[in-house]
Amino acid sequence: MEERIIQAIEAIVGAENIQTEATDLYTYGYDASPEFHHEPDLVVAPASKDEIIQILSVCRDNRVPIVARGSGSNLSGGTVPIAGGIVLLFTRMNRILEFDQQNLTLTVEPGVITQEINQYIADSGLFFPPDPGSMQISTIGGNISENSGGLRALKYGVTKDYVLGLEVVMANGDVIETGGKLTKDVAGLNLTQLMIGSEGTLGIITKAILKLMPKPEANKTMIATYRTMTAAAQSVSDIIAAKITPATMEFLDQVTIKAVEDFAHVGLPTDAAAMLLIQQDGHPREIDADIETMAAICRDGAAIDVQVARDEAHGAQLMAARRTALSALARVKPTTVLEDATVPRSEIAALVNFINETAQKYQLYIGTFGHAGDGNMHPTCLTDLRDEAEMKRVHQAFAEIYQKTIELGGTVTGEHGVGLAKLPYLPWKLGAGGMRADRAIKAALDPDNILNPQKLY
Ligand SMILES: Cc1cc2nc3c(=O)[nH]c(=O)nc-3n(C[C@H](O)[C@H](O)[C@H](O)COP(=O)(O)OP(=O)(O)OC[C@H]3O[C@@H](n4cnc5c(N)ncnc54)[C@H](O)[C@@H]3O)c2cc1C
After folding, report:
1. Which of 112, 114, 165, 402: disulfide with 135, CB 3.0–4.6 Å?
2. Who's near 259: CB < 8 A, 6+ residues apart?
């Protein structure tokens, strides 16, 4: 990057808020996906929307790519600055701006860490339902831009269901305010939802109005273990068919159960082939009735064992253990390739059986866990990036797994985003017309292609 451009940016944010050291540039060349790396030319931490407008103006004039980055915890190469340019941080835009207890909203800057939202409103009797496994580190700006899901998605939905309005700096320097503290608003196109999940390619989010919900009075957790994956998947279908919507219904296969137990030591049954972790919340009487019915369904569905957590603390311990699944698996081998195949719930068993067959065919070590209630599976291949022959087999295996996912009526990413990782598979899901429509929107809103280029389209 030319020195005069660096100086122009420095004049906007101050020398202390730019990073040009080789080690910093190397670090910001990565995110949580293992296979992509490209260094930016500059890392910049603006303090305000106005500074972002000015930075974008410099980028536009000089055709410099600009990649928004929350915590870089995305698993799709979404923040790897593949075309160089600027990585834009929100570490100085991390304030909670307003808690409106009349309208049940929280207005935040994009750099707020997800977990801090619920900590901030802990005593209010309200909560913010989206709870990605990464909530201790991810930012709300990243969650919105990936439309992240979480363990409570089955009952409460995902991030898009809790964003009422956004402030966004567009590539041309316009600042738009979408939505508001409104439950109804059909004025114009739904730009709030267009921005959600757009992975930093259509605008820079500088503020968000979030919807809060009354906090459930209590919760109860149970685990059911199985000899086969098919039996576990059948219980998932039977519970949904019984018209019960648990807050959480997670699936772990044997590879994952063993890795988690080895890591978290919470007494998981390491001899089981599959396990469901189920939580219900709400009024204590309703919870008890639902847990009783679900336990009966699991037993009838050939569960080897069904155990209800002793109390909420024990339940929280089991849920926390589930959240460690990726970290636990990541300890096994040097490289962890975590995927995001999503099918209709009725097809979970077919997908997981196919994943296991494919792992055998390509002699790969794949553990699968995921949000069973959402049909969202995370087949996780434990491998080594330095083993080129094995990595080739990993790519072949996942291409087949995604082909199967599409055949089963599924999608190539349920919550982790397209980024760079899912680009090769995206046309399988969108088709030629869908790809053209997406690209037309990108070209209209970012004609110079400076916002996170080479991603998503
Ligand atoms: C251990 C672990 C567990 C995970 N569990 C889950 C899970 O349960 N569910 C789930 O959905 N994901 C999960 N993820 C993936 C990841 O944490 C989420 O995608 C998360 O939302 C990313 O947040 P971030 O702040 O790290 O964003 P980043 O990774 O920094 O960025 C993500 C995308 O958002 C864009 N972006 C960031 N901020 C802005 C902004 N202000 N304006 C415009 N664009 C912006 C970036 O350009 C990028 O495209 C997990 C990841 C890990 C490592």
Report:
1. 114
2. 325, 328, 329, 331, 332, 367
209 phi, psi to nearest 5 deg = -105, 120
Q: Left, alpha or beta for 187 (phi > 0: left; psi -120 to 50: alpha)? A: beta
Given this chain, do its domains 96-214 and 218-326 carry the same CATH topology?
no
| CATH number of this structure's domain 3-89 | 3.30.43.10
- Cα–ligand 1 centroid distance for 326 (angstroms): 15
pLDDT in tens, 120-172: 999 999 999 999 999 999 999 999 999 999 999 999 999 999 999 999 999 99
How many CB atoms sit inside 10 A of residue 454's CB? 17
Q: Whose CA is nearest to atom 37 of ligand 1?
A: 142
Domain spans, the chain: 3-89, 96-214, 218-326
**218-326 has CATH 3.40.50.970 classification:** no
346: burial class by Cβ within 10 Å (0-12, 13-18, 19+)?
A: middle
pLDDT average, residue stretch 78-85: 98
Supply the residue whose CA is at minimum distance from atom 39 of ligand 1. Answer: 141
Q: What residues line ligand 1, using a CB cutoff of 6 Å? A: 31-32, 67-75, 78-79, 90, 110, 132-134, 138-139, 141-143, 145-146, 148-150, 199-200, 204-205, 326-327, 415-416, 452
| Correct CATH for 96-214 of 3.20.20.140, 3.30.465.10, 3.30.450.150, 3.40.50.720 | 3.30.465.10
- The best mutation among 134, 207, 260, 323 to test binding of ligand 1, ranked by most ligand atoms within 8 Å of the C-beta, falls on 134
Q: Whose CA is nearest to atom 34 of ligand 1?
A: 142
